[in-house]
Amino acid sequence: MYILGISAYYHDSAACLVRDGEVVAAAQEERFSRKKHDHRYPARAVDFCLRHAGITPADLGYVAFYDKPLLKFERLLETYIDYAPRGLRSFLMAMPLWLREKLWIREQVGKEAGFAGQVLFTEHHESHAASAFFPSPFESAAVLTMDGVGEWATSSYGYGRGSELHLLKELHFPHSLGLLYSAFTYYTGFRVNSGEYKVMGLAPYGEPRYVKLILDELVDLREDGSLRLNMKYFDFAAGLRMTNGSFDRLFGGTAREPESEVTQREMDLARSVQEVTEEAMLRMARHAHKETGERNLCLAGGVALNCVGNGRILREGPFEHVWVQPAAGDAGGALGAALSVWYQYLGQGRDVSEVCRGRADGMKGAYLGPEFMADEIEEFLLTSGARYHRVPHAELAETVARLLAEEKVVGWFQGRMEFGPRALGARSILGDPRSPRMQSQMNLKIKFRESFRPFAPSVLRERVADYFELDVDSPYMMLVAPVREGLRREAAGGEEGLFGIERLNVPRSTIPAVTHVDHSARIQTVGREEHPLYHELLSAFERLTGCAVVVNTSFNVRGEPIVCTPAEAYACFMRTEMDCLVLGDFVLQKAEQGENAFAEDLSWQEEFQLD
User: How many CA atoms lie within 13 A of 51 on its CB side?
Assistant: First the structure.
């Protein structure tokens, strides 16, 4: 039985294919369309999933959509009526898309995918909850979902046991922890549904000077984690902005203009909303534990991408184990919808040993996207005129480890592409974490992104506790923890007047390139089962240097999706100051490439997509 899951029409549209309860393929549309956070029907992602399994639409048993458009449309209409006549412009902008596409999912699936069978709809937070529990390694667990908004729900909690999933309570729109965080994302000058992680990265530079004001004026946060927003300050319910003039007056100024200088005010705002969000997450988790009595917790929804909050739930919460869906946002809804049909609609049994199949969980390390064979990669390299060396596979890890030890920045392209927002060693840019120069080099010369943003470490799972105050699996970079005290260094001299790269470049540990200004790190543990080659690379780097950690950031530049194909990886390599590119067993040195006009012309990329 094949079930295709689809999420679309809000942001991060995606497709997922499940075969007899096993996740066999999943990808976001943005990786194929090259439009970041692409919200459109995921035609290319659907096509990839079917071709990967070697099936046609006629072989599908069901198609599952990740929310209920009619319920969402009801919420939209009721909200506009409540706020009328305010919001007329927003209403007029929204209606054509709804009437043209969003209310016609069945017809759209039939037309785009050529599917004539049954299309089923799960509620948005049910999809999130299913994506959190069913692939998890737990026989039973509490489930907590938090995001901006689905149909009406903005957060929910419940429990999963075996093949059953029950949501007990919901928080409803407009009262939303995710929308509160997005309001501050907008106000600090970043893009909503895209820049929230920038706010999280900015927070450690600030002071929590606005926490009391937020709790007194903006949000009534209760002991059980439920909350009510004071809508006097927000415009998202009916307008085209997240905040309004009352919000501006409360915080003493208008929103920061995008791309303008980030000031201490934005740092303090980021720190303040981050602390409020963490407190809300902790209260929700404690209440879910109290109501369910479960020892394990599963998380999903966009707020579950707040890995600082996740780390606090693990350290300070009542649960023994915490598992976070790696594609926690809307993309993961496609996966949850498909699994919900298998377990809930069809009533299939769930055996955790079958779910995990000898791995840590049912997500297969999130390596669920396209893969390119050696002959495909070499064909591209020959056609492009690139200069390369083919390294015997058994020597590849040692070869790349030596490059990293020489402080080379390496583009690393291996195996199946990751599903979700994080690069996990399949489409990554790697560096030496011991280098105090690596942070600025990667931020400014390769990623072309804001200077204040930290980089994440990949660490051998068996060595994680030697470097960080963490000793659990974190394969999806969903947990933040402090660097161990024994590895920290006191900053030499004062930091008065320093910001961004200037502060990040002050060494704070023996692995300064992955140590944020508050001594924290967003950690990816690497196990041999999920990615044996990446594990061997880290092991080789440790044998060579004594360090079992490397810098891992996503293989893209600012504003673009993570690369999917060898052609996209090569173009990114040539247009940045990356030193080396490793495509499978093929190693390219920037110094050997010379002037290559091929990399300046994007027209050739079409030939080397997924044909």
Answer: 12
Q: What is the average pLDDT score of the chain?
A: 93
Nearest to 574 by CA among 594, 552, 553: 594
- For 123, 182, 186, the CA distances from 193, given in Å and listed in that order, are 20, 7, 10
Alpha helices in 243-392 (DSSP H): 245-250, 264-292, 307-316, 331-340, 352-356, 374-384
Chain CA centroid to CA 292, Å: 28
Report which of 560, 505, 497, 529 is spatially closest to residue 363, judged by C-alpha positions: 529
Q: What is the mean pLDDT of residues 383-408?
A: 96
**0.90 exceeded by the pTM?**
yes
Q: What is the per-residue pLDDT across 154-173, written as a single tens digit (0 to 9) for each?
A: 999 999 999 999 999 999 99
Please, which residues bridge with residue 227 across strands?
221
Cα 34 to Cα 53: distance, rounded to the nearest angstrom:
23
Decide: 520 and 481 in contact? Cβ < 8 Å: yes
Give phi and psi for 65, each to the nearest 5: -105, 145
Q: 491 falls in which pLDDT band (50, 70, 90)?
A: low
Which among 172, 153, 37 is positioned nearest to 562, based on CA atoms?
Answer: 37
- Beta strands 549-554; 427-431: pairing state: antiparallel
Cα three-residue angle 611-417-11, rounded to 5 degrees: 95
Whether 11 sits among the annotated catalytic residues: the reply is: yes
The one catalytic residue in 11, 124, 289, 531 is 11
pLDDT 10s digits, 119-159: 999 999 999 999 999 999 999 999 999 999 999 999 999 99
pLDDT for position 492: 61
The set of residues, in sequence order, having a beta carbon less than 8 Å from that of 471 and lying 6+ positions away, is: 464, 465
438 in helix, strand or coil?
helix
Q: Which two tokens stand for residue 271?
A: 């720190």
Flag the least confident range among 195-199, 488-492, 499-503. 499-503
Q: Which long-range contacts (CB under 8 A, 24 or more apart) does 596-599 make?
A: 596/384, 596/385, 596/386, 598/384, 598/385, 598/386, 599/384, 599/570, 599/571, 599/573, 599/574, 599/575
The CA-atom distances, in angstroms, between 566 and each of 49, 404, 556, 599, 609 are 19, 21, 13, 12, 8
Please report the DSSP string for 46-100 in residue order: HHHHHHHHT--GGGEEEEEESS-HHHHHHHHHHHHHHHTTTTHHHHHHHHHHIII
Over the stretch 432-443, which tens digit does the pLDDT of each residue have?
999 988 888 888
Q: Dihedral angle at the C-alpha atoms of 460, 462, 463, 465, nearest 10 degrees?
A: 120
Contact 25, 55 (CB under 8 A): no
* CA triple 178-184-188, angle to 5 deg: 145
Paired residues of 412 in beta bridges: 428, 582
| CA-based nearest residue to 327, from 369, 276, 379, 286 | 369
Q: From its phi and psi, is residue 251 left (phi > 0), alpha (psi between -120 and 50) or beta?
A: alpha
**Do the Cβ atoms of 359 and 529 come closer than 8 Å?**
yes
